[in-house]
Amino acid sequence: MTALPYAVDAETSLRDAELETLRTQYEKEGEMAGIQTKFNYAWGLIKSNARSDQQLGVRLLSEIFRVSPDRRRECLYYLALANYKLGNYGEARRYNDLLLDKEPANHQAADLRKLIDDKVTKEGLMGVAIISGVAIAAGVVGGILFRGKRR
Predict the structure, then answer these.
(1) Most buried of 12, 37, 127, 149, CB within 10 angstroms?
(2) Shortest CA distance to 91 belongs to which of 103, 99, 82, 102?
């Protein structure tokens, strides 16, 4: 569990039965699904561990963002969260920064920013380590080949 209490959504998921309840309600309303029903379902999808669910959640939240200005604040946070969970850290940061521009004291967004920054730093360091390892291996192989030609 995260040490950032306001970012708990990043690491908690819904039980399958809970998500199924949201899905059933959304499908029952069909084309006439209200904004709240669609938002609840998108929220549940984002909290899923399945990547395809998270991607559908992003699509639904993007639709809500476009058509419902009064839900944009919530959509920004959950779009940032979903993109974080999907590994789209640039998009996550973009949505989160838009929210923090509007609400600088938002604790959820501030904690999510820390999670995003930590993940980017960690993955950046891993990338550097991988590239360094490949460079060393190439140097060793090159050295062996060069020695073999000299003989």
Answers:
(1) 37
(2) 82
